[in-house]
Amino acid sequence: MVSRRAFLSALCLSAAGGRVAAAAAHKFHASFATVEHNPDAQSLEILLRVFSDDLESALSRKARRRVELDRTPDAADLVGAYARERLKLRRANGEPLRLLWVGMEQRVDMTLIYVEAPAPDGIADVEALVTVFFELFRDQKNNVSSKDAQGKRHDILFRAGESGFKPLLPTT
User: Fold this and answer.
1) Beta strands 30-38 and 141-147, pairing class
2) β-sheet with 100-106: strand ranges across
3) Strand partners, 114
4) For 134, which DSSP code?
5) Whole-number Å distance between alpha carbons of 61 and 135
6) Please, where are the H alpha helices in the chain?
7) Which residues, at least 6 apart from 168, have a Cβ–Cβ distance to it below 8 Å?
8) What is the sign of the dihedral through the CA atoms of 39, 168, 162 and 111?
9) By CB neighbour count within 10 A (0-12 exposed, 13-18 middle, 19+ buried), where does 143 fall?
10) 33, β-bridge pairs
11) What HEC string does 52-80 produce?
12) CA of residue 30 relative to chain centroid, distance
C-alpha cells in the first residue's frame, strides 16, 4: 500500500508541471531508441526518446545559448543536427547510412525524435553508435532495440566512456 507521504509527494510532482516534474523525477540518465526496417519504404525508421530537460541542456551547451524546445525558433534544426551527430548508423563494411530528419514531438517530460535512413538492403548488417548526452553525464546509458526478420527483439546498450559501433542484430 502506498504511504500517504509517497502519495502526496507524487501528487505534488504531478501538479508542479512538466519541466519541474521532469527535473525532479529522473535521477538516471538514459535514452531509448528503436530501429525498425520498413521494407516497403526500403528504409530504417528510428525513434529516439530522450528526457526533454537533458536535450535542452545538450543543445544549449552546443549552441552556447539558452535553447528551449518550445520557444526557440530553430529548435527543430538544432535537434536534427544533434541527432545526426550523436546517433550514427553504418553497414558492417563501414559505409555510413545517412540520417534524414522526419520530425519530433514533445510529451510531458520526453521528446520523441524521428529520423530515417535509406536502407534498401535491410537491417541485417547495420551497426549503430549512440553517444546521446555522453558529453553531459558519466552515467548515461543509451539503449537501442531492433527486430530481426523473424520479429525477435534485440537490444544493445551504450554506456558513457565506451566507444565503437555495435551490430544491431547478432552476427551469425
Assistant:
1) parallel
2) 100-106, 110-118, 43-51, 30-38, 141-147, 153-159
3) 47, 103
4) T
5) 9
6) 4-15, 18-25, 52-63, 75-86
7) 35, 123, 126, 127, 128, 144, 146, 154, 156
8) positive
9) middle
10) 48, 144
11) HHHHHHHHHHHHCCCCCCCCCCCHHHHHH
12) 8
Q: What is the DSSP string of 111-127?
A: EEEEEEEE-TT-STTEE
Give residue 19's identity as a one-letter amino acid code: R
Read off the pLDDT of residues 26-75 as tens digits, 9 standing for 90 and up: 678 999 999 999 999 999 999 999 999 999 999 999 999 999 999 999 99
110's grid cell:
520526453
pLDDT tens-digit series, residues 114-169: 999 999 999 999 999 999 999 999 999 999 999 988 889 999 999 998 889 999 99
Q: Is 14 helix (H, G, I), strand (E, B) or coil?
A: helix
Specify the amino acid at residue 43: S
Q: How many CA atoms lie within 13 A of 35 on its CB side?
A: 32
The cell 552515467 sits on which residue?
Answer: 139
Angstrom distance (rounded) from CA 116 to CA 130: 15
Q: Which residue has the cell 565506451?
A: 162
Nearest in space to 113 (alpha carbons), one of 54, 165, 49:
49
Distance CA 62, CA 58 (A): 6
Q: Which residues is 127 bridged to in the sheet?
A: 90, 167
